[in-house]
Specification:
With about 300 residues, the protein is an alpha+beta fold. The protein has 2 domains: about 160 residues, Ribosomal Protein S5, domain 2 (2-Layer Sandwich), CATH 3.30.230; about 120 residues, 2-Layer Sandwich (Alpha-Beta Plaits). It contains 11 helices and 11 strands. Strand 8 and strand 9 form a beta hairpin. Helix 2 crosses helix 3 and helix 6 runs antiparallel to helix 7. The relative contact order is 0.19.
């Protein structure tokens, strides 16, 4: 038996939308899976070089976790998994979230769990702890605003007319390190200010008011003021991009920075940016409106 699994990447937080707003983007993790005699993970792209080849691979760990939840650990068949990805690792573009979703989708087909979309979302969010990375690539695509307090609640917002230009540095930033610099608490006054910025950000996304969203991104209280210290030349690059972008935000935990640019201005704008900062990787990305997909291969269908 063989399957093909495809999961889009994501960006999260969107300035003040900390742990609650995420977007699916058109970078992908793809798995070609064949039932085999033993578990084997094979990296087929540069982004995945050095990943664990056996059961210590994150995808298998998620398969086992989901199987355990349904009392089916002993029913997991061994598989050969060829993995392809164009998502940079540890850069704030949801690479770990895509592996979580891929593992959950693989468990679903291997064990014939027949999980509903809501069940998948609940499982994935429990594993990761917050819905902004998981929801867009896993099930829904597009922009998702989510809340998690033991149960996932969410809504989708269509996004058009804007390109998300990822500015990717050469170094990695682990999420645990980025989390460590955040404050433990806010005062009541600070909380009101932070939540009002986040609320207006959601309204701006809903209406496609990108200049307003960019303004709110600059007023983020939750994470960017603290995490920027972990990223060399952050302020310099941030100010430079903001001259031509609707807004700029730190993608996920970083270190990738994303600039919102009008579709019709992307080519010329990115060309200028590349010339000014050639050491960075520049990726103009579109919102992916479809979530993860699973297909049986042609051999299985024949």
């Amino acid at each position: 038996m063989s399957w093909s699994i495809k999961v889009p990447s994501s960006t999260s937080n969107l300035g003040a939308g900390f742990d609650s707003i995420g977007l699916a983007l058109n970078l992908y993790l793809e798995l070609d899976v064949t039932v085999s005699k033993e578990w084997e993970f094979i990296a087929k792209s540069e982004c995945l070089e050095g990943i664990p080849a056996g059961k210590n691979n994150l995808v298998y760990e998620i398969v086992e976790k989901v199987a355990s939840q349904y009392g089916k650990v002993n029913d997991i068949p061994s598989c050969r998994v060829e993995m392809t990805s164009n998502i940079p690792l540890a850069r704030g573009l949801g690479s770990s979230a895509t592996a979580i979703i891929a593992g959950m989708e693989l468990a679903n087909v291997l064990l014939d769990l027949q999980l509903s979309q809501d069940e998948k979302l609940q499982i994935a969010t429990e594993i990761e702890g917050h819905p902004d990375n998981v929801a867009p690539p896993s099930l829904l695509g597009g922009c998702v605003v989510g809340h998690y307090d033991g149960k996932v609640s969410y809504t989708q917002i269509p996004v058009t007319g804007v390109t998300f230009v990822a500015v990717i540095p050469s170094f990695e930033l682990k999420t645990k390190d980025a989390r460590a610099v955040l404050p433990k608490s806010f005062s009541f006054k600070e909380s009101v200010q932070a939540s009002s910025v986040a609320n207006l950000s959601v309204a701006a996304i809903s209406k496609g008011e990108w200049n307003l969203l960019g303004e709110m991104m600059q007023k983020d209280y939750f994470h960017q003021p603290y995490r920027k210290s972990l990223i060399p030349h952050y302020d310099e690059l941030y100010d430079y991009l903001n001259e031509d972008a609707y807004g700029v935000f730190l993608s996920g935990a970083g270190p990738t920075i994303i600039a919102l640019v009008a579709d019709h201005l992307v080519d010329e704008t990115v060309k200028q940016w590349k010339q000014a900062y050639p050491a960075y990787q520049w990726l103009p990305l579109e919102v992916e409106n479809n979530g993860s997909s699973v297909q049986k291969t042609m051999e299985e269908l024949s």
